[in-house]
Amino acid sequence: MEKNARIRRLGRNEKTPYDLLLLADESIESINKYIFDCEIYVLELENKIVAEYALQQINDEEVEIKNIAVTNELQGQGIGKMLLKDAEDKARLRGFKSIAVGTGDVATKQLNLYQKCGFEIFGMKKKFFVENFPSPIYEDGKQLKDMIMLKKKL
Ligand code: ACO
């Protein structure tokens, strides 16, 4: 990663980077269900926001990454791993005991990423993608149905 890359918290008065958030979620409507309860962290390269994650406090012990995305051109270069590590470090420093993340049951790439980074599956939100979206969602030709929930102890 270039030397001038930095991750910072997005200010409350700054524009929500929906273009990036939409890479990880289906619609602005579904993003708006959680984003106002989240802190958004962004990675900037040469003053341009190229990646983000959104962190929501679930309770006194746990935070959840509700959305994580890297701009298309920069995917597969280790930025996703770097963002996950940053989220873990921030949550640990603030005294949280675990960090969670959820992803689609057919999202192989995302599952690979989370499991490689030490997250373990602990549950499933059955039919999440069927019941929460107006039309079926497909990834690599397979319909998304359940949300797999993963967690990492900090
Ligand atoms: N196929 C399979 N696995 C892959 C691929 C791929 N094309 N690309 C990355 N991975 C996996 C690998 O396990 C990789 O580890 P490795 O390099 O040791 O093999 C691991 O992911 C980490 O790779 P990174 O380069 O760090 O990942 P990247 O910077 O691309 O970020 C992310 C991953 C955030 C999923 C990114 O690709 C992205 O923005 N995708 C679109 C949005 C998205 O799907 N977001 C997650 C939705 S779930 C949620 O938001 C809670």
Describe what you observe in this structure.
- The chain has helices at 18-24, 28-32, 79-93, 108-116, 128-131, and strands spanning 6-9, 38-45, 48-57, 62-70, 98-104, 120-125, 138-139, 142-143, 147-153.
- The chain is globular, with a radius of gyration of 15 Å.
- The strands form 2 sheets. The protein has a 7-stranded mixed beta sheet with strand order 1-2-3-4-5-9-6, sandwiched between helices. It has a two-stranded antiparallel sheet with strand order 7-8.
- The chain is built from 5 helices and 9 strands, in the order βααβββαβαβαβββ.
- With 154 residues, the protein is an alpha+beta fold.
- Helices cover 26% and strands 36% of the residues.
- Bound molecules: acetyl coenzyme *A.
Summarize the structure.
This protein has 154 residues and is α+β, with helices and mostly antiparallel strands.
Helix percent band: 25-40%
Main β-sheet description: 7 strands, mixed
Q: So how many helices?
A: 5
Shape, principal axes of CA atoms: globular
Order of helices and strands: EHHEEEHEHEHEEE
What fraction of residues sit in β-strands? 35-45%
Strand order of the largest sheet: 1-2-3-4-5-9-6
Distance between the termini: 25 Å
How does the helix and strand content classify structurally? alpha+beta
Oligomer: single chain
Which stretches of 5+ consecutive residues score pLDDT under 50?
none
The overall average pLDDT, rounded, is 94
